[in-house]
Automatic annotation (TrEMBL):
<dbReference type="InterPro" id="IPR036318">
    <property type="entry name" value="FAD-bd_PCMH-like_sf"/>
</dbReference>
<keyword id="KW-0285">Flavoprotein</keyword>
<keyword id="KW-0325">Glycoprotein</keyword>
<keyword id="KW-0732">Signal</keyword>
<dbReference type="Pfam" id="PF01565">
    <property type="entry name" value="FAD_binding_4"/>
</dbReference>
<keyword id="KW-0274">FAD</keyword>
<dbReference type="GO" id="GO:0016491">
    <property type="term" value="F:oxidoreductase activity"/>
</dbReference>
<dbReference type="InterPro" id="IPR012951">
    <property type="entry name" value="BBE"/>
</dbReference>
<keyword id="KW-0547">Nucleotide-binding</keyword>
<feature type="domain" description="FAD-binding PCMH-type">
    <location>
        <begin position="76"/>
        <end position="250"/>
    </location>
</feature>
<dbReference type="InterPro" id="IPR016169">
    <property type="entry name" value="FAD-bd_PCMH_sub2"/>
</dbReference>
<dbReference type="InterPro" id="IPR016166">
    <property type="entry name" value="FAD-bd_PCMH"/>
</dbReference>
<comment type="similarity">
    <text>Belongs to the oxygen-dependent FAD-linked oxidoreductase family.</text>
</comment>
<dbReference type="InterPro" id="IPR016167">
    <property type="entry name" value="FAD-bd_PCMH_sub1"/>
</dbReference>
<keyword id="KW-0964">Secreted</keyword>
<dbReference type="Pfam" id="PF08031">
    <property type="entry name" value="BBE"/>
</dbReference>
<keyword id="KW-1015">Disulfide bond</keyword>
Length: 531
C-alpha cells in the first residue's frame, strides 16, 4: 500500500471535477487539505504513507475492501476525495483538523460492517478516515483489563485474550471481523449478554478525538460524553481511538449446541415455547434461534428453525437445566459440544462447527455481500398466529433469515439510562431480519429491499410500538434519515427515538456542548440541540 502513495501531488482532473460538481462551497480546497495533513501529524510516522487518493492504484481496492455491503456501491453518487488509512493517532487528529479547516466531511470507518454504508459514503465532498491499521491490543492480566484500538476486530480480541488466559473472555459480537470502534459504540452484543451485558457495559475508559483534534480520555472528556459514546454511536461526537475494557471470567469448558427443527417437526410450538422460556433461563444459558426457508424436497419449501445455545458450564449440568426448563426441545448429549470459551467464539462465527483452529479469528477479510437488514424489539410474545404470519412472509423470499436473541438476565438489571443504549428491561428478545442476494443489479437490489420491507411490515402488529424500536448497529435508513449535508432536528427525532428511546434528548444535549457546529455528522447522526 505504501509503495505508490503520493500525498501532496495534484490529483486527477476527474477528481477535481467531481469535487467541484458535488458542492458549491468555496471553502472546499483539496490541495490545501493535503498540505495541511503533514503539518498536524507526528513527523516520525509520515502521514504520506497513509494517504490514498483516487489516482493511486490501491485506492479502489482499499475503498471496497473494508465495506461489506455491496448494495451501497450501487446507489453511491460519489467517491471520497481521499482515504486516510491512519498509521498513528496523530494521523486521525490531522484528518479531523484539516478536514474541518478546508471544508470536507469526515466519514469514520473501523471494520466496514456498516449496513447502510454511512461510514464510507456521502453526497458531499468527504474523506474516509479508515482506522483498520490502528489495531493494537494490550492486555493486563493483573487488572483483568485491556486497551483495544478501534481498528482491531472482535476475533483478534478473543484470540489475544486466549493467549493470556483460558478463564477470561469478553462479551462482544458473534461475527469475528467486526471493527471494535463502531461495534462497541452502538452497544455490541453476543452470546454472553445475558450473563455480562453488552460490550459497552464492560468499557471503563476510552480515547476519543474531539472536534478540535484533541485526544481525550474518560476524565478529560467528562462523564456525559463517556455516557454518550457507550451506545449512542461515537461518530456524532468524535473519533474513537481505543477502548479500555474489563475482561470477564468464563469457565475453562463451555458447552454449545445447535438443534434444527422444521415446521413439520413442530417448530412453531417450539418457537412459541422458546419465547416464554429463553428470557427467563439462568444467566449462564443463552439460546438464540434462526429461522430460514429451505427446500423440503422437490419444489416444496418449509421453514427450518435452528436453536443454537451457549452454556457457561459442562454438558451434564446443561442437560439438567434443559430438562427442567425447556424439555420440549429434546436436547440430547449428542447435540452438545464441550470446548474452551475461545473455541466457542469460533463455533458462533460459523467456522466448521468449532472444529477449525482458533487462528481463523485473525482473519480480517470481511467478504462483500448484497443485503438489507432491519431490526425489531419485542416486549410481548408473538402469538402462534403471528408466527404463522412470519413463516408465510419468509416463504415468499429467497436467501432470507430471521434471528431472535433473548434478553433477560443481566440485560434486565441495567437501567436504560446507565448508558446511551436504552433497550434494556421489558424486552423479551431482539430480532434481525436479513435478506441477501448475489445479483448485483440495481433492479434486483430494489426488489430485495422491497421484500425486506414487506417482511418488516408483516411483523408490525407484534413488535414494539410508539416508537417501533430499532438497533443502531443494524443501521436502517428506512426508519428516518437526513441529507448528507445536514442534521435536521425534526428528522433526527424520527430515528433518534427508535434507536435511543428517552436517551435521545440527552444525546442531543451532549452533542450541543461538544460539537455545536455539527462537524461530525452523517445521515443518522445526533443533532446538537439545547433544551
Amino acid at each position: 500500500m505504501k509503495d505508490s502513495i503520493n500525498t501532496i501531488s495534484i490529483v486527477s482532473v476527474f477528481v477535481l471535477l467531481s469535487i467541484s460538481l458535488a458542492t458549491s462551497n468555496d471553502s472546499v480546497d483539496f490541495d490545501s487539505f493535503l498540505r495541511c495533513l503533514p503539518t498536524r501529524s507526528n513527523p516520525s510516522v509520515p502521514i504520506a504513507d497513509a494517504i490514498l487518493t483516487p489516482d493511486n492504484s490501491s485506492f479502489q481496492s482499499i475503498y471496497q475492501l473494508h465495506a461489506n455491503n455491496l448494495r451501497i456501491f450501487l446507489s453511491a453518487t460519489s467517491r471520497p476525495v481521499a482515504i486516510i488509512t491512519a498509521l498513528h493517532p496523530s494521523h486521525a487528529q490531522a484528518t479531523v483538523v484539516c478536514a474541518k479547516r478546508h471544508g470536507f466531511q469526515v466519514r469514520i470507518r473501523s471494520g466496514g460492517h456498516d449496513f447502510e454504508g454511512l461510514s464510507y459514503t456521502s453526497d458531499v465532498p468527504f474523506v474516509i478516515l479508515d482506522l483498520f491499521n490502528l489495531r493494537s491490543i494490550d492486555i493486563d492480566m493483573a487488572s483483568e483489563t485491556a486497551w483495544v484500538q478501534a481498528g482491531a476486530t472482535t476475533g483478534e480480541l478473543y484470540y489475544r485474550i486466549a493467549e493470556k488466559s483460558n478463564v477470561h473472555g469478553f462479551p462482544s459480537g458473534y461475527c469475528t471481523t467486526l471493527g471494535i470502534g463502531g461495534h462497541f459504540s452502538g452497544g455490541g452484543y453476543g452470546f454472553l449478554m445475558r450473563k455480562h451485558g453488552l460490550s459497552i457495559d464492560n468499557v471503563i475508559d476510552a480515547e476519543l478525538i474531539d472536534v478540535d483534534g484533541r485526544i481525550l480520555n474518560r476524565e478529560s472528556m467528562g462523564e456525559d460524553v463517556f455516557w454518550a459514546i457507550r451506545g449512542g454511536g461515537t461518530t456524532s461526537f468524535g473519533v474513537i481511538l481505543s477502548w479500555r475494557v474489563k475482561l470477564v471470567r468464563v469457565p475453562p469448558r463451555v458447552t454449545v449446541f445447535t438443534v434444527p427443527r422444521t415446521l413439520e417437526q413442530g417448530a412453531t410450538e417450539l418457537v412459541y415455547r422458546w419465547e416464554h422460556v429463553a428470557p427467563k433461563l439462568p444467566k449462564d444459558l443463552f439460546i438464540r434461534l434462526q429461522a430460514d426457508p429451505i427446500n423440503n424436497g422437490g419444489n416444496n419449501k418449509t421453514i427450518r428453525v435452528s436453536f443454537t445455545g451457549n452454556f457457561l458450564g459442562q454438558t451434564n449440568r446443561l442437560i439438567q437445566l434443559m430438562n427442567a426448563n425447556f424439555p420440549e426441545l429434546g436436547l440430547r448429549r449428542s447435540d452438545c459440544l464441550e470446548m474452551s470459551w475461545v473455541e466457542s467464539t469460533v463455533y458462533w462465527g460459523a467456522f466448521l462447527n468449532g472444529t477449525s483452529s482458533i487462528d481463523v479469528l485473525l482473519n480480517r477479510v470481511i467478504g462483500g455481500l448484497f443485503y438489507k437488514s432491519k431490526s425489531d424489539y419485542y416486549k410481548t410474545v408473538i402469538p402462534r398466529q403471528g408466527l404463522e404470519t412470519l413463516w408465510e412472509a419468509l416463504m415468499d423470499i429467497e436467501d432470507v433469515f430471521v434471528q431472535m436473541n433473548p434478553y433477560g438476565g443481566r440485560m434486565e438489571e441495567i437501567s436504560e439510562s446507565e448508558t446511551a443504549f436504552a433497550h434494556r428491561g421489558g424486552n423479551l428478545f431482539m430480532v434481525q431480519y436479513g435478506v441477501q442476494w448475489s445479483d448485483g443489479g440495481i433492479g434486483a437490489s430494489g426488489r430485495y429491499v422491497e421484500l425486506s420491507r414487506r417482511l418488516y411490515s408483516a411483523m408490525e402488529p407484534y413488535a414494539s410500538s410508539n416508537p417501533r424500536e430499532a438497533f443502531v448497529n443494524y443501521r436502517d435508513i428506512d426508519i428516518g434519515s437526513n441529507e448528507s449535508s445536514e442534521t435536521d432536528f425534526e428528522a433526527a427525532k424520527e430515528y433518534g427515538a427508535k434507536y435511543f428511546r428517552n436517551n435521545f434528548k440527552r444525546l442531543a444535549g451532549v452533542k450541543a456542548r461538544v460539537d455545536p457546529e455539527n462537524f461530525f455528522k452523517n445521515e443518522q447522526s445526533i443533532p446538537p440541540f439545547v433544551y
